[in-house]
Amino acid sequence: MKLSAFLIIVLLTYSNLSQAGHHRSERNSFSVTIHSFSKHSNKDETIPFNTLGISLLPNERFILQVKTNKPSVPVKLQAEQGKTRQLAQQQWQWQAPNKPGLTVLRLIHPISKETTELNVFVMVPASNVKNGMLNGYQIGSYPRLPFKNMTTYETPKGFIEVTEANQDTKVSPHFTIGDFLSHQKGGFPKYLVLRERLLLKLEHIIETLYSKHFPVDSLHIMSGYRTPWYNKSLGQGPYSQHIYGGAADIYIDVNPKDGYMDDLNKDGKRDYQDAKVLIDIIEEMEGQSLYNKFVGGLARYRKTPHHGPFVHIDERGYKARWND
Question: Where do the Peptidase M15A C-terminal domain residues begin and end (predicted)?
Answer without folding.
Answer: 216-252
